[in-house]
Amino acid sequence: MTELVSSIKIRPFKISDLNDVNAYASNPKTTKYMLWGPNTIEDTQNFLNYVLSNYQKDPVTHFEYGIEYQGKIIGGIGLIINYENNSAEIGWILNEAYQRQGFTYEAAKQMIEIARSLGVKSIHATADSRNVASYKLMEKLGMVHISTSKGTRLNKETNQYELDQVYYEMLL
Q: Is 36 inside any structural domain?
């Protein structure tokens, strides 16, 4: 890990992050494997409003944080906690200009520590099976491939459930 990558931090999103978030959320390449997007500015505004409303809940179950580097939000990382079974789902997205440099790995490690501090005992993640970089990151984080579900992931282009989805998990 370089000193630059270690200087990232994750933090709750703010309304003022709109343009930074929309820079990656509106990019077709960045959102190719996501279940949403590419966003309009209105979509991104609605997302931020939703996230901010979730921060007001008690207990907070949706931790949607920005990945901040040099004062700019370059991506997002989310943790959705199920307190009943002490488990959580983790997911991420990163601006295309910052991919494959270790930023998401560092952000995910920070989010996993937050999960651990909240009593989470297991974390899982899913991805489009074509998104090799995402599931390789899951493996680097220590997650184990549990299953691949055939034809269960939505294809945004056809609006059909015809893509394969991988499922990874780790115990904390």
A: yes
Domain that residue 21 falls in: 3-121
Q: What is the CATH number of the domain that holds 10?
A: 3.40.630.30
Of 95, 162, 158, 163, the residue nearest 128 (C-alpha): 163
pLDDT tens for the chain, residues 1 to 172: 455 667 899 999 999 999 999 999 999 999 999 999 999 999 999 999 999 999 999 999 999 999 999 999 999 999 999 999 999 999 999 999 999 999 999 999 999 999 999 999 999 999 999 999 999 999 999 999 999 999 999 999 899 999 999 999 999 9
Distance of CA 34 to the CA centre of its chain: 10
What is the spatial distance between Cα 101 and Cα 71, in angstroms, rounded to a whole number? 17
